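User: Good morning. I'm curious how zinc ion would be positioned relative to this chain. Could you predict the structure with it bound?
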Amino acid sequence: MLIDTHAHLTDVKYGGAREIIDNMQADGLERIIAVGFNEFTSAYSVKIAEENEKIFAAVGVHPSDAATAGQGYLGALSDLCDSDKCVAIGEIGLDYHYEDTDKRAQHRVLCEQLELVREKKLPAIFHVRDAYGDFYDIISKHRDCVTAGAVMHCFSGSKETALVYADMGFYISFSGSITFKNSKAGEIISALPLERILIETDCPYLAPVPHRGEINYPKYVRFQAEKIAEIRGVSVEEIIKITRDNAYRAFAKMK
Ligand SMILES: [Zn+2]
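Assistant: Good morning! Here's the predicted structure, ligand included:
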């Protein structure tokens, strides 16, 4: 069965995600990790996880939300981390995609949350976009914070970058963008050890082909498994099994 390691179940488009959760068995989904991106969606993700056996949560402040994070955000995240259903701290990282980005706030909030990663001994889920150089500098300085592993979510860097993080023991997670026609993920996926690969949807964003441009759903994570199977020349079942095993290893609190 499939595991979607990165879904935004709190999105208003899902209206509480009841339908998604009720259909998991029929859709071949074993687990979903509901990922927060600010204080509110982190608390909401933990709530959904605590109310539904097959849902787990990650809590964190996304770089694009760094500048507006409230004073008490770290304490709030710290409390959420103590839930049995919270399996990771994320998504956290750097995102320079938009021109008006507040880099100082992003750096501060990332470093503060890396201290939380250290304290809680949880894996980190990193969001990095157009900022791989600065991210590498920060993570190199704070390497000792990451004691329970990490995931490079929705990976969009180069093959060389992917291999650097795989060598550090991080997982490289692929979203629906690997199914897009212009995707360069083929050479990255070919080069990585299968044991370091995760699949995710990042729904409601980034719906894979053949649903590109539509609302994305956790069940579409299957298309990522199919694409990776095609690239590696192995069966879809094998990729589903390997990525499932990887997900339980990456997120040790997930049962
Ligand atoms: Zn996300």
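The longest helix spans residues 103-120. The chain has a mean pLDDT of 97.
Let me know if you'd like a different ligand tried.
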